[in-house]
Amino acid sequence: MDLANVKYWEHPSKTNCVFVEEYDSPLISIDFWFKAGISFEEKEKVGLAHFLEHMIFKGSKLLKPGEFDLRIEALGGFSNASTGYDDVHYYVDIPPCNLEEALSLLINLVLFPNLNEEDYKLEKKVIIEEILQSQDQVDELIFNLFLKSVWLDHPYAKSILGNEENINELELIDLKNFHRSQYNPTNSCIAIAGKLPRNHLEILKNCELKKFKKNSTDSNQICINNKFIRKGRKIAFFKDIEFSRILMAWQINNFNDQKYTLGYEIVSSILTDGRNSILNRSLKEDKQIVESIYSGIHSGELGSLFIIEANFKKENQKRVENSIDNLLQNLLTHSNLINKIKKAIRIVKSNYIFNLETSSQLANFYGNHLLWGRLYPQLELSKNLKYWENTENLKKLIKFLLQDKFTFIAHNK
Description:
By secondary structure, this protein is of the alpha+beta class. The protein has helices at residues 48-56, 67-74, 99-111, 117-134, 138-150, 164-169, 172-182, 200-206, 258-272, 278-286, 317-331, 337-354, 359-371, 377-388, 391-400; strands at residues 6-10, 16-21, 28-34, 78-83, 88-94, 188-194, 232-238, 244-252, 292-298, 304-312, 406-412.
């Protein structure tokens, strides 16, 4: 991405904005971000952030329930939203000629929702039904229990959906207060990517953001200590799972440390990208003791995990664990480590390029980074990739994976 195509600007309301010019894109993507994920919820109000996301789509002072989606579709676009651990975002993809109207609709929907008792009661039933349905998804159950087990007194241990008891205890005033405290200029940003009209700044200046003001209520993200994952192991049992599962987790630098996040992405690629990766070749192809094996980063602004996950027959558990430990140890002295690092860097770099092709991907990427104060994130990419070409630098990350970890094992009941 050419740096000349990325422009930052502060709206008079103090809302930060980023514009990404992508001349070949048929659509413009508008992505409205807020620091309003579950890490901002009070402990007893689990599920509040996700509940509010649902309620916002029930309409606003100027939009009837369902009207927003109908009008966006009539403009040739589509919309969606997502609640995460740290943030929530609402986005619209739209033909460039309809930017002004779509932006107006999105801002009106998100900033001025009509939070009323009738919709609140109806949507509460929808949320509870979503929670009950999720309890039938065994993969989700296993991963949620893993997160609850690995984190110590940490917001990432909570379910984004919440649970039935918590949702039943939430009141309409809780939603209004959360919106008031989190949905304000200092907690938000807007990213717009695509074939931008020449008057895009004028459109932004004149939109409803000018009514967007900082509220007197303070925003508070949960304060935590640096060390907050459990060590040791836990075994749990679930109904109707075909294979046993192991998840090994190490606490690594939070997502704000882009250099080390990238380094662990390279390590992950060495371990499990492709049939000839270290773990796949040994455990799946040669020994055939796992059905599948994966590694990756579960990242967050308040902390991240490096995870290795494998599915296997129960009788192979000890062999799988020992093999993973031995392969990590042997990786330090692997005769072909330099070439494996080079290949992994090519894969990771290609993934970044591939995942920044569409206007939606660009708005998501730059919007999320801007929300957390990271400008021009692509500037650091080449510099950081160069750093990890040094074998000794990457070996430090591998050595860390030889230290204490948390191990979660799931077996069939």
